[in-house]
Amino acid sequence: MALKKKPMKPKPKASPSSPPRGHSNGTSTSTSSVAPKSTLLPTIFAAIIAFMGGVLTPPSLHAYREGMVGMSNSLDSSISQNLIPQVPCSKIDDYLHAIPVHGLHVICVEPISVGVDGKEIPDIHESQRNLAQSNALRFTLYKGSHAGPLKRRVVVKSQGQGIKSISWHEVKMNLIIELLLVPEGKTQQPWAVFTALGDRIVGANDNPSTGNGPGSNSHVMDTIATSGVIVVSQGGNWVWPGVREGFERTIQLAPSKSAPTKKPRNITIETLSLKPLVVSVKGFLSEEECDYIAEKAGPSMRYSAVSLKDADKGRPSSDWRTSQSTFLSASDDPILKDIEYRTASLTRVPHSHQEYVQVLRYGTDEKYDAHHDYFDPRAYKSDQNTLRLIENGKKNRFATVFWYLTDVNDGGHTIFPRAGGLPPVRNHADCSRGLKVQPQKGKVVIFYSLDAAGGLDEYSLHGACPVGENNVKWAANKWIWNAPMNYVKP
Questions:
Q1: CA 193 to chain centre
Q2: Is 80 exceeded by the pLDDT of residue 314?
Q3: What angle do CA 303, 307, 311 make, to 5 degrees?
Q4: What is the pLDDT of residues 129-161, one digit of tens each?
Q5: Residue 178 backbone dihedrals phi, psi, to 5 degrees
Q6: CB contact set of 45 (below 8 Å; sequence gap of 6+)
Q7: Comparing C-alpha atoms, which of 85, 347, 30, 348 is closest to residue 224?
Q8: What's the rounded Cα separation, in Å, for the pair 15 and 321?
Q9: Do 135 and 163 contact (CB within 8 A), yes or no?
C-alpha cells in the first residue's frame, strides 16, 4: 500500500504508516610506524581514494554527539593530567566476539613514547601514564571485533606538540587500510568512530578544524587518546556489541529532559541473540509510563495495515496482521518526549533518527506473522514512494526498540524464527522455533534490522505470536533509521 506523505520542515518527507511485510526465502601481527617516509606511499594512495569517495561527499549525516550521553572525560582538560581511559584496554574482552562481526571493529588505543630511533620507550603502568610524556599512539586493531589471536598493530607518531598534534587524517588513512573500510556510496552510509560507551567521536566525512574547541583535530585526538577502547562502525551508527548470549552490560542513561539535575540512571543490557543481534532491558519504562501510553493511544486505535511488497499487491493486511495500532506524536507531551530521549540515550543513536512511537494492541488470537522491519528495495521496485523514502536503499530502518506495556500470561511472545542462524522459514505464522521473548511490563528489546556494516540482516525476521485466551497484549515500538529522518521534533 502507498506510504502516506506527512508535511514537515525542512523539506517534506514521506512517513511510513506501517512496517513492511517481509518474507525472505587471518591477518598476522605486525607493528608499523607511519612516521618514516617509506611507509607513506600506501597511505597517500589510500588518501587519494578516500578523497574521491569521501571528502567530496555531503557532510556527515550525524550531528556531533547529538542525543548522546556526555560520559567521556573532559575533552578540554590539560594534556598534563594523568590518562584515565573511559574504558581501559584491560576491559576489551567486553567488546570482543568468538566469531567476527561484519562491519564492527574494536581498537585498543595506548599513548606511548617513541625515541628518535623510532623504537618504543618502555612505558610505565597504564594508570600512571601521562599524555604530556607521550608522543605517539599505538592502535591494536581487532577487525570484526574478533577475539581471535590474530590482530594488527599500528603506531602513529606525533610530528608536533604531543598527542593532540597527531593528524586525524593520518589516523583515518591507517584505519581505512587496516580495516578495509568502505567510503560513503550510493547505498552506504559513512563509517564512524565511537568511544566504547557509544559517544560518537568522528566520522569518515568529518574534517576537523584547527584550534582546540569541539570538532577540532586537537579535540578529536584528545578524545581518542583518552578513550582506551574505541569502536569503529562501518555503517556509521552505534551498535551495542553483543559479545555472547547471556552477556550483560551496565550502562548509564542521560538525565530526564524534565529533570536535568536528577542523577543519571544505570540500566543493564542483556544479549539474547547474536544472529540477529537482540538485546533486552528490564525496567526501562515505569508501570505508570506503560499505563499512560496505552491510555493515550486507546481512542485512536485502528486495525493495522502493512506496506505491501510488489508480490503482495491486492491482498488484505489481515492475511498477516490482525492487531490494532496507532501512531503518537510526542509534541507537547513531556512524558513521551522524555521517553524519546531516553530511547536515544539507550541506543546511542540521535533522536532525529526516530519515527513516531507506534502503539499496538493484540487481543485473543491476534498476531503478526514473521516479517522484516527494513525495506528491501528489490521488493518495492514498483513503489516509487518507498524507493524515494529509502533513497533506493541508502536509508533504512536500522533498529527497532520494542516496549512491552503489559504482562501477558499466555502467548503474545515476540519470536525470531531465524535466531542463531536457522534456515529460512516456510510458514511465517509458525511460532514453534527460534528465540521467543515473553512480554513483561516495562521491559524493552532492541533488535537490529541492519548489521553493523549497514547491510540488510535477513536473520532479523520476527513476528508476534497469537495472544492466549482472556489476555490482551499492549506494546509499542520506536523504529530508528540509519540517518536523520526529521519525523520527531527536538
A1: 12
A2: no
A3: 125
A4: 567 778 999 999 999 999 988 789 999 999 877
A5: -75, -35
A6: none
A7: 85
A8: 20
A9: yes
At 338-359, the pLDDT tens digits run 999 999 999 999 999 999 999 9
More confident residue, 8 or 103: 103
Q: What distance lies between CA 463 and its chain's CA centroid?
A: 22
Among 91-95, 184-188, 212-216, 391-395, the least confident range: 212-216
Query: CA-to-CA distance for 166 and 222, rounded, in angstroms?
Result: 9
Reference 357, options 343, 371, 347; nearest CA is 343
Report how far residue 307's alpha carbon sits from residue 317's, in angstroms, rounded to the nearest whole number. Answer: 9
* Cell numbers found for residue 381: 521496485
Give the chain as a 3 state SS string: CCCCEECCCCCCEECCCCCECCCCCCCCCCEEECCCHHHHHHHHHHHHHHHHHHHCCCCCCCCCCCCCCCCCCCCCCCCCCECCCCECHHHHHHHCECCCCCCEEEEEEEEEEECCCCCEECCCCHHHCEHHHCCEEEEEEEHHHECCCCCEEEEEECCCCCHHHCCHHHHHHHHHHHHCCCCCECCECCCEEEECCCCEEEECCCCCECCCCCCEHHHHHHHHHHHEEEEEECCCCCCCCCCCCCCEEEEEECCCCCCCCCCCEEEEEEEEEECCEEEEECCCCCHHHHHHHHHHHHHHCEECCCECCHHHCCCCHHHCECCEEEEECCCCCHHHHHHHHHHHHHHCCCHHHECCEEEEEECECCCEEEECCCCCHHHCCCCHHHHHHCHHHCCCEEEEEEEECCCCCCECCEEECCCCCCCCCCCCCCCCCCEEECCCCCCEEEEECECCCCCECHHHCEEECCECCCCCEEEEEEEEECCCCCCCCC
pTM of the model: 0.81
Q: What is the mean pLDDT of the chain?
A: 83
Q: Give the chain's length.
A: 490
Taking alpha carbons only, the member of 426, 324, 455, 391 closest to residue 186 is 391
Mean pLDDT check: name the lowest of 28-37, 258-267, 449-458. 28-37
Instruction: Name residue 113's amino acid.
Output: S
Residue 261, pLDDT score? 67
CA 39/CA 232 separation, integer angstroms: 23
Encode pLDDT of 448-487 as tens digits: 999 999 999 999 999 999 999 999 999 999 999 999 998 9
Tell the residue number behind the cell numbers 551498535, with chain if given: 239
In angstroms, rounded to a whole number, what is the distance separating the alpha carbons of residues 419 and 242?
14
